[in-house]
Design brief:
- This protein has 95 residues and is mostly helical.
- 83% of the residues lie in helices and 0% in strands.
- The chain has four helices and no strands.
- α1 packs antiparallel against α3, α1 packs parallel to α4 and α2 crosses α3.
- It is globular and about 45 Å long.
């Protein structure tokens, strides 16, 4: 369980770094999630995405650790989504 949590956090970091880098080059229009875009406009690029990822990690960790049913698959789901986000930024930057 600890490894899956670490993979989730690593994917969140990768997505955060690539998003900040892409936004620095192409502007906020590159961000596809309207919630994150709004938060980034409201409090700044890095603080906005850092706040969003922290809230997401906190909610997922809370759910997995407090609900008796096994929801550890949420770690893997978040990891896949965030690695996909980071990878999509890499593809955009390469073109």
């Amino acid at each position: 369980m600890r490894l899956s949590w670490l993979v989730m956090v690593a994917s969140a970091i990768a997505d955060t770094v690539m998003t900040i880098y892409s936004v620095g080059i192409y502007g906020l229009e590159i961000e596809g999630n309207p919630i994150i875009k709004y938060i980034m406009e409201w409090i700044g690029h890095f603080p906005g995405i850092f706040l969003w990822k922290t809230i997401c990690i906190g909610i997922i960790t809370y759910v997995v650790n407090t609900i008796p049913k096994d929801y550890s698959w949420l770690y893997y789901l978040a990891s896949v989504v965030w690695f996909f986000g980071a990878f999509s930024h890499v593809v955009i930057l390469m073109n």
